[in-house]
Amino acid sequence: MPKRTDIHKILIIGSGPIVIGQACEFDYSGTQACKALRNEGFEVVLVNSNPATIMTDPETADRTYIEPITVRAVAKVIERERPDALLPNMGGQTALNCAVALAKAGVLERYGVEVIGCDIDSIEVGEDRELFAQAMADIGLEVAHSGIARSLDECRHVADELGYPVVVRPAFTLGGAGGGMAHDEAELMRIAREGLELSANNEVLVEQSVEGWKEIEMEVMRDAAGNGIVVCSIENLDPMGVHTGDSITVAPCQTLNDFELQRLRDYSLAVLERVGVACGGSNVQFAVNPQDGRVLVIEMNPRVSRSSALASKATGFPIAKMAALLSVGYTLDEIPNDITGATPACFEPSIDYCVVKIPRFAFEKFKGASETLTTRMKAVGEVMAIGSTFEEALQKACRSLEQGNMGLVADGSEDFASMDEDAFQDRVSRPTPERVFYVAEALRRRWTVERVHELTHIDPWFLCRIKDIVVAECSLAEGGVAGLTAERLLAAKEMGFSDVQIAQLTGEREDTIRALRTVLGVHPVVKTVDTCAGEFASRTNYHYLTYEAGGISEHHGAERPRVVILSAGPNRIGQGIEFDYCCVHAAMALSERGFETVMVNCNPETVSTDYDTSDRLYFEPLTFEDVMDVIEAERPQGVIVTLGGQTPINLASRLKAAGVPIMGTQPDAIDLAEDRDRFSDLLDRLEIAYPPSSTAETLEEARRVARTIGYPLLVRPSYVLGGRGMAIVYDDDDLATYMAEATQVSPDHPVYLDAFLEDAVELDVDALADGEQCYVGSILEHIEECGIHSGDSACCYPPFSLSDTLVGRIREMTRALALAVGVRGLLNIQYAVKDEQVLVIEMNPRASRTVPFSSKATGQALAKAAARIMAGETIAQLLVEGALVGEGHVTGRFAVKEAVMPWARFPGADTTLGPEMKSTGEVMGIDVNFPLAYAKTREAIDYEQPSTGKVFVSVCDRDKRAIAPVALSLTNMGYDLIATSGTAKTLRAAGIDCEVIKRVSEGHPNVVDEMAQGSIAFIINTPHGHTSRGDGSVLRGEAVNRGISCVTALSGATALVQAIAAMRKSSIDVYALQDLGQ
User: Fold this and answer.
1) Is residue 631's pLDDT more than 60?
2) Nearest CA to 849 among 601, 571, 617, 564?
3) HEC assignment per residue over 617-664
4) Are 413 and 375 in contact (CB under 8 A)?
5) Using CA atoms, how far apart are residues 154 and 156, in angstroms rounded to an integer?
6) Exposed, middle or buried by CB within 10 Å (0-12, 13-18, 19+), for 276?
7) What per-residue confidence (pLDDT) applies to 592?
8) Nearest CA-CA partner of 17 in 55, 54, 57, 50
């Protein structure tokens, strides 16, 4: 049927900030939807709170609102824009929940907005556990035995009937939030309490466990005419019991026979029809009993999901784009396949390679949290690898993780010998991020496949393939370098062994193995992802590298000068979507300037790995070997390394030494800024102040530095991102603890020790330089004082407390440093301001995580400008052309960025902010003043701020003088204060009434009791020292469990009080980016 002509303006809701369970895959889907609908002539309005996305660029939609995804804010956008239709299934669970809430509030009916792509009833059937179970019964499909519970007593009753273990699944949540596996009543009560609180309709499903069954996902599409296709089947290597987002997954399914696969295909399409998914993409998850083939339907998502992004990248089939077109009336047979140009979208994709996804975790950031993987998702990112065989894809995925493993085995990163047999068996049997490496070691120790299967329930087919890798490893080690004939070397590469692994096994160096490959003619071939297993010619250049005897390379020569862009790899805390954003902008800018762009990345969640973002895409690990293989295939004019975060920066020097032309800032300039001694010498020459500092490689050297500089000290490793291993130390014991950690994080580089500037204001400056001129793009003022990582601190543009004189001085210092270091492209400098003195904390001659926010706040596309500078243009040219406006351009609005923390995912981890970054994402608020903009960020993160109730206040001695004004404002707004004795004494001395409550360690009643009664509105608790033991840790953990806001920095508390006051005085408006500055 043809495109609908009765709708003209469509509202798309995004997914909000990056959180565990809902990451940047929805930037990919939302961006695809915006482009597809605009190409069809529809006007697109977008609402999303995440500035670090391509979808929130003002060029992506016609009207772009960076606003909270709440009923209040979205209703205001609807009132202003009057869209004809709402497309809610591109923004994950957040968008679906918002659409349901808008419908229930009567907003959609009031303004005549039609929901397209799915309807509210189908969302509720898909998400409501009870309705879904009934729907499956209607079509004769089984679900696990279960019961719906709406209270803890009901949970206990259902679990007693089913028998333990049981799985708790809340309704309307994402990434298994609030869910988990309960093996006894105590675990059940803990998990169910949180699940009931997080569930949008206060209900959970208590389900019989099918731990150990196979888990299979089917990515399915359906159109309004009832046509359906299965885009991709995905098999979890880990059995049921591990959230699919935390499991290693493989596409297509490897262990099901054709009958079993066809049966699941039929079931999937039947599920979509019964749930009522009118059209679009959905994900259906099944459990399959490996003993008798019995199938249970676990759940379905009536929307584009995390697995949809993986399926799209695995097959080349653009699920989100197709779903958007189906929502406006097209049918699958009417939409052409972009990849082939010769087949319609109703042709099911077929692939002739294997894809492996491995999740990336960040447990090192959350000490005290359990590493055991359950049905509650904990991964912060993922990698995908493509190979001709499962073995090759698995090893490529292992080295894509950037966690020290250059493959599954034999790269010198293993340390199994120190573990006793019982501990080792536990690590094999218990699902953790490292289990696959322990499985390989078990097989190396000659454990049988049957024994490993009995412990892990991993399918024997996968275990046999891992055993093949282990056997090949032993063969390579026995043969040594003398045994590396062309045939044996090719066989090793076909199984995914990296040059580093082969070097380790044969006692040679990596460059020797690479040279030997060249001599023996063992080279990778370029293959194409084409959706049809080579049956039709591909019109797009979506590639991967693989090894095969007699393989023909599917590579085409360049028609224009070619530039390779190295992107950021897997999302992790400290290096996320912000860097992918910069790489996408570079591809856009350089393509417009006549270059052919080549993107290299291994992250399936991103816009950079979309098939039409760059002229050519290579889905490859970002290691020296793999990047050099791409460079040798493409022969580019230049390679960009300064936009993808620390990952490509770490390759820069080796690439330069190998003769690769680096565009923009050169490796020596990068090293100048990273090398503490060289950088300090430069600052001295320029007469720019910096905190007293030194370096140390041993604990004794560090203690000597401490005696000279004095405590507190800020210690950090060099060449890391996200504050990894960074801490504030207050005494010799702290120093010993953190020196051990810092030297583990960055073993080949010295540790930096800086005097810690207490009570200083921290600033982030993003700037551009071309070797002759520097352009200061933004000066961002942090809300929290120095000592909290810039990625975890809220910040504001323009700065709200700095004088014009001080801003001018910061601009001049930035210019001097940029030109002295020799930056060509983006740079970021962090400053501290204390008593009107400006000190340099650090300089990064590359893109920073604040670039997307700075670009949205100022209206200047800084990453695009940087790419053009790297390609030879000047700042002067960009200013004349209008690609940049004059420094200090004012938009007339304040913009605030606030970090999103993952505390609820890691019970047991302390929730104090410090110099090591822990946030997963960010939101942005735009308004006429700072308090209102900051209030929007709180709303966007879903921090509910009760307007009445008790505020618990407990601050460290350092903050006692400054707490009185905050406390007075709270009492004036009608809150009651409760405090521990020390803080209460300070408040009463200031004439502020408060109730004294016992510390947790002193007995009852205490603040935990008050939280249990529901009387606490929020908490102000500022700890002192690098970690907080005892009472503070307990109360902050309880606050996380109960969803109560807990502010751990006094400056954050001040901003929060200002925001609450501002919201009470005036109603909050919404602003389109396209209107700013007008």
Assistant:
1) yes
2) 571
3) EEECCCCHHHHHHHHHHHCCCEEECCCCCHHHHHHHHHHHHCCCCEEC
4) no
5) 5
6) middle
7) 95
8) 50
Distances (CA, A) of 1001 to 955, 1019, 1033: 16, 18, 12
Angle formed by the axes of helices 960-972 and 981-989, to 10°?
A: 70
pLDDT, average across residues 404-418: 72
The string of DSSP codes covering 223-273 is -TTS-EEEEEEEEESS-TTS-GGGS-EEES-SS--HHHHHHHHHHHHHHHH
| Nearest C-alpha neighbor of 51 from the set 1057, 555, 797 | 797
Q: Which of 699, 741, 702, 749 lies closest to 724 in space, CA to CA? A: 741
Instruction: In whole angstroms, give the CA distance from residue 213 to residue 157.
Output: 25
Q: Are 242 and 375 in contact (CB under 8 A)?
A: yes
Amino acid at 535: E
Query: 436 CB contacts (<8 Å, ≥6 apart)?
Result: 237, 248, 358, 398, 408, 466
Residue pair 917/723 in contact (Cβ under 8 Å)? The answer is yes
Query: Cα separation of 249 and 589, whole Å?
Result: 35
Closest C-alpha among 493, 523, 547, 541 to residue 633:
523
One-letter amino acid at 454 equals E
**What is the spatial distance between Cα 490 and Cα 710, in angstroms, rounded to a whole number?**
58
Q: How far is CA 372 from CA 365, 859, 900, in A?
A: 15, 44, 23
- Give ∠ CA 757-760-762 in degrees, rounded to 5: 105
Closest CA to 241 of 272, 269, 214: 214
* Integer angstrom CA distances of residue 237 from 243, 363, 663: 11, 21, 41
1069 with 1063: CB under 8 angstroms? no
Q: pLDDT value at position 204?
A: 86
Angle subtended by helix axes 577-592 and 862-870, to nearest 10: 60
Question: Residue 693: beta bridge partners?
Answer: 754
Report the alpha-carbon distance of residue 695 to residue 754 in Å, rounded.
9
Give yes or no for a contact between 15 and 26, defined as CB atoms under 8 angstroms apart: yes
Helices (H), 143-242: 152-162, 185-198
Give the separation between CA 486 and CA 472, rounded to whole angstroms.
15
First to last CA, the chain: 42
Starting at the edge strand that comes first in sequence, how are the strands of the sheet with 280-288 ordered?
Answer: 295-301, 280-288, 214-222, 228-236, 249-251, 354-360, 381-387
Q: What angle do CA 484, 487, 490 make, to 5 degrees?
A: 85
Q: Tell how strand 63-65 and strand 85-87 pair up.
A: unpaired
Q: Which residue has the tokens 């000068």?
A: 561
Helical pair 510-520 and 486-494, crossing angle rounded to 10 deg:
120
pLDDT tens-digit series, residues 107-121: 999 999 999 988 888
- Check: CB of residue 165 under 8 Å from CB of residue 120: no
Q: What is the pLDDT of residues 354-391, one digit of tens each?
A: 999 999 998 877 777 889 998 888 888 999 999 999 99
Sequence-separated contacts (24+) of 1035-1038 with Cβ below 8 Å? 1035/952, 1035/954, 1035/1000, 1035/1007, 1035/1008, 1035/1011, 1036/910, 1036/911, 1036/912, 1037/907, 1037/908, 1037/910, 1037/911, 1038/1008, 1038/1011
967: closest CA among 956, 979, 957? 979
CA pair distance 629, 632, nearest whole angstrom: 5
Does residue 807 contact residue 744 with C-beta atoms inside 8 Å?
Answer: no
Q: Would you state the structure tokens that stand for residue 834, as one six-digit string?
A: 């204390």
3-state secondary structure of 768: strand
H-helix or E-strand containing 753?
A: strand 751-755
- Mean predicted lDDT score pLDDT of the chain: 89
Distance CA 652, CA 667 (A): 6
DSSP 364: G
Q: What's the chain's length in residues? A: 1078
Q: Measure Cα distances from 717 to 305, 405, 519, 749, 813 in Å.
A: 37, 20, 40, 7, 25
Please give the order of strands across the beta sheet that includes 562-566.
525-528, 542-546, 616-619, 596-601, 562-566, 638-640, 662-663
